[in-house]
Structures are given as C-alpha cells and as structure tokens.
Amino acid sequence: AQVQDISADKAKKAKNMAFVFDIDGVLVHGDRLIPEGKRALEILNGDNELGIKIPHIFLTNGSGKPELARTEQLSKILQNPVSTEQFIQSHTPMRALAEYYNTVLVVGGEGYRCREVAEQYGFRDIVVPNDIVAWDPTIAPYRVFTEEERASSRPRDFSKTNIEAILVFSDSRDYATDMQIIVDLLRSENGRLLTVAKDPVSQRIPIYFSQGDMLCPTEHPIPRMSQGAFRIGLEAMYKALTGVDLERVVYGKPEMATYKYADEVLASWMEQLHGEERIPDNIYMVGDNPASDIIGGNMYGWNTCLVRTGVFQGGDNDEANPANFGVFANVLEAVKAACRKEL
Ligand code: G3P
Ligand code: MG
C-alpha cells in the first residue's frame, strides 16, 4: 500500500508540472535532430517510471510555415508527436490581427508560404512583396525577378490600393527588396505606393514583427542574424530618412503577450491531457537563448533552464540573464533535473 501511495503522490505531482520547450538550439538545429531532444520527449510522453504523460508545449520564435505543416515536420524529426494544440510559433498570436485589417503586406519566408499562413489566420486581402515587384519592377532596382516568381505573383495597381498594415512574419529572403518596399509604405500616405506623405507620422501605417531575436542557431557554426537584426536595420534607415522614430509592435519571446498566450495554450492542453483546464504550479522553460527564452521565462515567473546546444556559448551561467534553475549540457539533462526536483 505504501508503494501505491508513493506512486499516487508522484502522479499528482507530475500533473502539477509542465515544460515549455524552445525548438531551435534545444530540440533541433534547422532540420537536424539534437538526439537528447528525442529521449527527453519520450520520457514526457509516458516512457517513465510512472507511465504518466507530463504536459509540455512548444514555444518557438520560429516562423514561415503553417502550424500544421511545421508540427508534422517536427513530429518526424523528433520522432514524437507534436500537435498544433501544443504549439506556438512566433506569428501564431498574430492571427488576432485579422479582425482589424483588411489589406496587409506580409513579409518574409520561403516562396509564398507566409501568404498561406496569413490565409489560414483569416486575413482577407494579402499582399506579398513579389506582388508589388511584379506590378512595378523598378521599385526594387537590384532585384532579379524570375519568370516563375512572376507567374505565381498577384500584381495589381498598388498606387490605387491602401495597404493597412505591414506584418513581418518571418526572415526576409531579400533584405534589399523587402526593406525598400517597407520603407516606401511607411513613408507613404496611408499605405498607398507612389505617394510620399508630407508628415511622416500621421498617415503612417502600423508595422508588426513576429519576433525580435538578433541571432538564430542554424547548421552554420556561428549563429545567423534573424528578424531582430532586420528590424534594427529598418529602424535606423527609417530614422535617417524621416528624422522620426519608428513605432512598432514586436511579438514572440520575450514579449509578455506571447507568454500570456502560452499560458492559455498550456491550460487547454492540460485539459486534453488530464481533463482539467488549469495552469500547473511548476513550469519549466528550456531554452538556449538568454536574451529571449530565459529573460522572458524569468520575468514570467517560470523556472528557467539554459542549455548549451544553441545560442548560449558562455561560462557557468549567462551574466545578463541567468537561468534560475540552472545551466545544462542539453535538454535531456534539464528535463531529468526538473523531474528529480518535482517528483
Ligand atoms: O530566431 C529564429 C528562430 O529560429 C528561433 O527559434 O525555437 O529558438 O525560438 P527558437
Ligand atoms: Mg532557440
């Protein structure tokens, strides 16, 4: 009976803890699995002494594909199920903006996949930079526009269209073209191309970025510049050209709105898993980037675990944003340590 009591107690504790995983630099590098990630997820999916599922969600600043396509790809790489209902990528909370704007410019990502993302979020009239280049190639003087791109774009007369907001969903594949078009729109009268507003502020359309990471770990040995670097370049250019600061909204980690959204996702995932919609008391965020995962988790009152498989390449702990639960060689070590503490 005593043994039964101990496992019942542990099972109760297991239901009162949850993990929030960063993806790039923790579970994968690009499309390459970090092997300890697979094992960590197996443990949480029930391959543990209690045979119980420990709730976990994924909170990534990654972007560029519809949620379903990305979770299917991740399930294959991680060899563990990843559901869209436990998955938040940088632009997921931006679906709420579909209610406010009719015509939007969506920037970033491969091919036309971000157009697809925006369609799924319910945006009604979606423009991508290639639609604008196809209308007037002189807008981007150094751009080489292929026939294939021309064939798949949707040009119209953008001097007669008001673009109501700019949404940067993912990394720009062509900084020169995207920055030119964004600056043109920000300086225009209410998002109408071929106009330049006299007052740079009153007729300026809003701009939203899906995340602010400066760097992203990839297959390359040194982390690559990400959307935050693109934004800072844009802000500097805009300021130099107009003399005013660019107001903008940034989503993703470590912005508070994203953590609040994660709480909602976690609560409904808890309901699916354990039949009770509540936020567990002990939440562990496992991340590799002190400037996004760790600072955000610390501010939000989560236990934070910093791993050495991604952006962080420092000493005992990060100096500016130290992980409050500790620094670990990899995600498996972090998961084991958290389970040892809580169970
Ligand atoms: O910085 C871009 C993105 O790939 C980072 O993803 O999973 O580390 O938040 P993640
Ligand atoms: Mg990361």
From TrEMBL:
GO cellular component: mitochondrion
Organism annotation: Trichoderma parareesei
Swiss-Prot/TrEMBL GO biological process terms: glycerophospholipid biosynthetic process
Protein name (record): Phosphatidyl synthase
Transmembrane segments: none
